[in-house]
Amino acid sequence: MRELLAKGYRAKKRPSGHDISDKFGIDNGAAIPPNLIAIPNTESNSFYLRYCEEKGFKPHPARYPAGLPEYFIRMLTEPGDFVIDPFAGSCVTGEVCERTGRRWTCVELLRDYCEAALGRFVRDPEETARPVVDPANPSNYYRLPHPGILWNGDPGEPLPSDGGKSRRPKRAGADIPKSREERGVSIHRDGTPPLSAASSADERGT
Ligand SMILES: C[S@@+](CC[C@H](N)C(=O)[O-])C[C@H]1O[C@@H](n2cnc3c(N)ncnc32)[C@H](O)[C@@H]1O
């Protein structure tokens, strides 16, 4: 994109039929981020949690960080628009809507979660959790590994010719074997010879 911006883009109809206007060449300063959203789930929900404790509610176990709904709400709606969250949980969507000036409705199956969610609205929404906004802080940026560096060097087992149909299912809770030796030991415990023994027998032709 940087190269395109530097060289300039000639607006034209693409072979696909897409009509790319001259707006394509506008430098938005990377305003459209890549399609990975990385948000640590570490924000303080102390107010909500305290409310739950005081009222005897179990806090919602799968709360999203406010930055997640906030990203989509800001991208897809204008202040004053109406937002609906049909799976509201702890109603973080409602909290973000209050803070960003959207009208909203949250729907939640479990009454206790709804009642606990009230804990998000008993204080000024301006005081609620805010996403990280300091672009100068290097810890607000993340790096992605090239997939190649995720390989541990173990060539793994060859793909069976039957696609794995005859492979015995792993026992629940069994350790994932780390090396060829360990794989041999775990197979032996299931009643079949260890891989090392089996391969030595193969080598000997027995
Ligand atoms: C992953 S949680 C949502 C968490 C929420 N985004 C938050 O940050 O607190 C999904 C919620 O959807 C609710 N749910 C599941 N089925 C539902 C249904 N048919 N109607 C309304 N809520 C439903 C569950 O009870 C659960 O609380």
Outline the structure in words:
- The strands form 2 sheets. A two-stranded antiparallel sheet has the order 1-2. A two-stranded parallel ribbon has the order 3-4.
- The chain has helices at about 1-5, 45-55, 65-75, 90-100, 110-115, 180-190, 195-205, and strands at about 10-15, 20, 80-85, 105.
- The protein has a domain at about 45-130: Vaccinia Virus protein VP39 (Rossmann fold).
- It contains 7 helices and 4 strands, in the order αββααβαβααα.
- Helix 3 (about 65-75) packs across helix 4.
- It binds S-adenosylmethionine.
- S-adenosylmethionine binds near residues 62, 87 and 92.
CATH architecture of the domain at 46-130: 3-Layer(aba) Sandwich
The level-1 CATH class of the domain at 46-130: Alpha Beta
* Net shape: extended
Q: Strand-residue fraction?
A: 5-15%
What is the helix content?
Answer: 25-40%
Q: How many distinct helices? A: 7
Strand order of the largest sheet: 1-2
Q: Provide mean pLDDT, rounded.
A: 76
Radius of gyration: 27 Å
CATH superfamily of the domain at 46-130: Vaccinia Virus protein VP39
Class from secondary-structure proportions: mainly alpha
Bound small molecules, by name, code or SMILES, are: S-adenosylmethionine
Low-confidence stretches: 180-206
For the largest beta-sheet, the strand count, sense and barrel status come to:
2 strands, antiparallel
The count of DSSP E runs of length 2 or more, i.e. the number of strands, is 4
CATH topology of the domain at 46-130: Rossmann fold
Alpha-carbon distance between the termini?
62 Å
